C-alpha cells in the first residue's frame, strides 16, 4: 500500500474523523489511484465583503494515493474510513444507486462495476482533461507556494498573479503524457501527448534493474552515472566539443548509445547507472517535446504535473535544463507541489455542479481574504495557503443559500 497520508488520523480521532468526512473524489489512472477528500472541523462564520454573514465549515483537504494494481487495498481504505459516503445523493434513485462519487481517469470506466460491487456506490464520471485543468487552475490560484522552479539545486517559489496566469502549457506526466494549452478558467485544448512517460520509465526501469518499487528506482538513479551508458558528443568527437552546432563534449549525443560498442551485457552495467540514464532520457525527451509545443503555440510558461515527477530533484533539474536549453532561456519549467493530484482535485471541484440539498450549497472559499475566491464558481476552495506536514491543507467551506 502506498498511501501518502497514512497519518491523516493524526488530526482527528478515527470515529470523529469518519463522521466528518464529506466529498470524496477519485482519479483512477493507468498507474495510480488518487484520492482527494474533505474532512470538516467545527463551524464558524465569515463575512462576505463585510456585509452578508455565511456559515463556514472549517476543514481540511486530504490527499492519498494507491497503486492501481492494488485497487482492492484502496477500496478497503475507503470503506474503513467510510469515505464512500462522501458523495452526492440522488434522492429519486433506488436505495442501491443513491450515492454518486465523482471520479475521473480511465479507471473510472474500467473499475466502475468493481466499485459498485465492493462499495455500493456509483461513479459520476468526469472528463480527465477537464479535471486536470480545473485542478491545476484551482491549485495555482488557491494554494500559496503551489508552483516553483527548480534549477541547479535551487527551488524558487513562483508567485502566481491571478490576472496573468493564462495562457500556459500544462504537461501532465502520468503513465503517458498529455500536453494541454490552457487559455482561461474554462478554455483549454489538449494539443499533444507522448506515450513515452512515467509508465515507460517505471516499466523499462523495472525490467532493466529489477527494482521492486518506483521509489527504489528513483533512489537508485540518485547515485548513478549516466555517462557510463550514454554516448556523449565527446565520445564521438574524440573528447572535443562540437561548437559549430552548439554542443559541448558532455552533451548526450545518444542515450544508451555506449551499450552498442562496449561489448557488455546488461549484468555488466550497474543498475544505478542504467536508472540514471533512463531517467535522464525520459525527462529530457519530455522537456524537449514540451518546449516544442510551447514554441508552436507561443507559450512561455510550462507547468509540469503528474506523479512521474515525484518531487524528485534530478527529474525536475533535467526537465528544467531541457526547457532552458531548447528555448535558449526564453521558456520556464515550473512544477506543482500537488503534482499528481490535479485530476482528482478537478473531480473534487466538480461537486460544485451539484446541489443535493445538503452540503453542496456551499462554496469552498479562500478564507483569508474572502475576496480572493475567484468568480464563476460555486466551489472555489481554499485555504490559508500553507501546506502542513501531512500534505493535507486547511480550507473553509462557505455555505451559501442558493
Ligand atoms: N508508487 C508509485 N508506483 C507506481 N508509479 C509511481 C509511483 N510513484 C510515482 N510513480 C510514477 O508516476 C506515474 C503515474 O503518475 P500519475 O500522475 O499517477 O498517472 P496515472 O494517472 O497514469 O496513474 C507512474 O507511471 C510512475 O512513473
Ligand atoms: C491516455 C492518457 C490520457 C491516460 O492518462 P494517464 O493515466 O496516463 O494519466 C495518457 O496516457 C496519454 O495522454 N498518453 C499519451 C498518448 C499520446 O498522445 O500518444
Q: Keywords for this structure?
A:
402 residues; alpha+beta; nine-stranded mixed beta sheet; 11 helices; binds adenosine-5'-diphosphate; binds the ligand CC(C)(COP(=O)(O)O)[C@@H](O)C(=O)NCCC(=O)O
Q: Can you tell me the residue ranges where pLDDT is under 50 for at least 5 consecutive residues? A: 1-19, 357-363, 365-390
Percentage beta strand: 25-35%
| Biggest β-sheet strands, sense, barrel | 9 strands, mixed
- Could you tell me which ligands this complex binds, including any ions or cofactors? adenosine-5'-diphosphate, the ligand CC(C)(COP(=O)(O)O)[C@@H](O)C(=O)NCCC(=O)O
Number of helices: 11
Global geometry? globular
- List SSEs in N-to-C order: HEEEHEEHHEHEEEEEHHEHEHEHEHEEE
List the helices and strands and how they pair.
Elements: H1 14-19, E1 21-28, E2 32-48, E3 52-67, H2 71-80, E4 88-89, E5 99-104, H3 107-110, H4 112-119, E6 122-125, H5 128-142, E7 147-151, E8 154-157, E9 168-173, E10 177-182, E11 188-194, H6 198-209, H7 214-222, E12 231-232, H8 233-236, E13 252-254, H9 271-296, E14 301-305, H10 313-326, E15 332-336, H11 342-349, E16 362-365, E17 382-387, E18 393-399
Parallel strand pairs: 1-5, 5-6, 9-14, 14-15
Antiparallel strand pairs: 1-2, 2-3, 3-18, 4-5, 7-8, 7-15, 9-10, 10-11, 12-13, 16-18, 17-18
Helix pairs in contact: 5-11, 6-9, 7-9, 9-10
General description of the model:
The radius of gyration is 23 Å and the shape is globular. The chain has 402 residues and is α+β, with helices and mostly antiparallel strands. The chain has helices at 14-19, 71-80, 107-110, 112-119, 128-142, 198-209, 214-222, 233-236, 271-296, 313-326, 342-349, and strands spanning 21-28, 32-48, 52-67, 88-89, 99-104, 122-125, 147-151, 154-157, 168-173, 177-182, 188-194, 231-232, 252-254, 301-305, 332-336, 362-365, 382-387, 393-399. Strand 17 (382-387) and strand 18 form a beta hairpin. The strands form 3 sheets. Strands 1, 2, 3, 4, 5, 6, 16, 17 and 18 form a 9-stranded mixed beta sheet that branches. The protein starts with 13 loop residues before the first helix and ends with a strand. The chain binds adenosine-5'-diphosphate (ADP) and the ligand CC(C)(COP(=O)(O)O)[C@@H](O)C(=O)NCCC(=O)O. Adenosine-5'-diphosphate (ADP) is lined by residues 2, 29-32, 67, 105, 174-175, 198-199, 201-202, 214, 306-308, 310, 340.
Amino acid at each position: 500500500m502506498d498511501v501518502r497520508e497514512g497519518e491523516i488520523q493524526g488530526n482527528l480521532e478515527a470515529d470523529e474523523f469518519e463522521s466528518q468526512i464529506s466529498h470524496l473524489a477519485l482519479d483512477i489512472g493507468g498507474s495510480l489511484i488518487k484520492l482527494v477528500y474533505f474532512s470538516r472541523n467545527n463551524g464558524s462564520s465569515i463575512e462576505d465583503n463585510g456585509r452578508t454573514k455565511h456559515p463556514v465549515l472549517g476543514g481540511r483537504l486530504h490527499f492519498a494515493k494507491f497503486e492501481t494494481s492494488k485497487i482492492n487495498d484502496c477500496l478497503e481504505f475507503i470503506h474503513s474510513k467510510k469515505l464512500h459516503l462522501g458523495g452526492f445523493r440522488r434522492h429519486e434513485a433506488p436505495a442501491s444507486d443513491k450515492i454518486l462519487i465523482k471520479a475521473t481517469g480511465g479507471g473510472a470506466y474500467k473499475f466502475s462495476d468493481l466499485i459498485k460491487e465492493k462499495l455500493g456506490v456509483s461513479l459520476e464520471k468526469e472528463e480527465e482533461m477537464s479535471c486536470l485543468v480545473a485542478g491545476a487552475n484551482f491549485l495555482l490560484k488557491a494554494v500559496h507556494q503551489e508552483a516553483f522552479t527548480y534549477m541547479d539545486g535551487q527551488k524558487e517559489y513562483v508567485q502566481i498573479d491571478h490576472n496573468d496566469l493564462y495562457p500556459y502549457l500544462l504537461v501532465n506526466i502520468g503513465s503517458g503524457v498529455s500536453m494541454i494549452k490552457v487559455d482561461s478558467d474554462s478554455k483549454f485544448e489538449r494539443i499533444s501527448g507522448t506515450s513515452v512517460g512515467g509508465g515507460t520509465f517505471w516499466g523499462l526501469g523495472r525490467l532493466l534493474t529489477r527494482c521492486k518499487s518506483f521509489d527504489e528506482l528513483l533512489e537508485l538513479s540518485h547515485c548513478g552515472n549516466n555517462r557510463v551508458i550514454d554516448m556523449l558528443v565527446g565520445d564521438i568527437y574524440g573528447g572535443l566539443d562540437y561548437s559549430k552546432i552548439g554542443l559541448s563534449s558532455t552533451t548526450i549525443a545518444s542515450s544508451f548509445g555506449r551499450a552498442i560498442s562496449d561489448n557488455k551485457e546488461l549484468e555488466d552495467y550497474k543498475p544505478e547507472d542504467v536508472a540514471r540514464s533512463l531517467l535522464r532520457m525520459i525527462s529530457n525527451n519530455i522537456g524537449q517535446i514540451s518546449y516544442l509545443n510551447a514554441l508552436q503555440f507561443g507559450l512561455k510558461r510550462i507547468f509540469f504535473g503528474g506523479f512521474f515527477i515525484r518531487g524528485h530533484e534530478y527529474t525536475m533539474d533535467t526537465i528544467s535544463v531541457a526547457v532552458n536549453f531548447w528555448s535558449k532561456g526564453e521558456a520556464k519549467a515550473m512544477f506543482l507541489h500537488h503534482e499528481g493530484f490535479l485530476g482528482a482535485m478537478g473531480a473534487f471541484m466538480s461537486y460544485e455542479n451539484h446541489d443535493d440539498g445538503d452540503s453542496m450549497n456551499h462554496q469552498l472559499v479562500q478564507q483569508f481574504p474572502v475576496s480572493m475566491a475567484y468568480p464563476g464558481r460555486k466551489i472555489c476552495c481554499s485555504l490559508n495557503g500553507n501546506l502542513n506536514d501531512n500534505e493535507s491543507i486547511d480550507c473553509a467551506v462557505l455555505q451559501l443559500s442558493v
